[in-house]
Amino acid sequence: MTVAASADFTEAVLSVVADIPPGHVATYGDVAALLGSRGARAVGRVMAKSGAEVPWWRVIRAGGRPPVGKGDRARRHYEAEGTPLLPTTDDEGYRIDLAACRWRP
Q1: pLDDT tens, 5-41?
Q2: Residues facing residue 86 across a β-bridge
């Protein structure tokens, strides 16, 4: 991937994430698919580097889990936006109810 292509991909990822409405989420793979890519990990890299510019908590892992290492911060956003959560017995104590709030543009 060239630097220009990388910058275009970054811009495209951030644009898609900015469009996710409050109370909804998309997985890293969903964002990649919307861009015609299978690069969920590439989306993750963009979010790790530039995600603070957009509602980063709305991009989650495929199992409905919040971004790695950001569960507590993300939960505050989910609760404020009314994002449906399901209780779990793991360290985070919750996951996002993808069936109820997965964003499909």
Answers
A1: 588 999 999 999 999 999 999 999 999 999 999 999 9
A2: 95
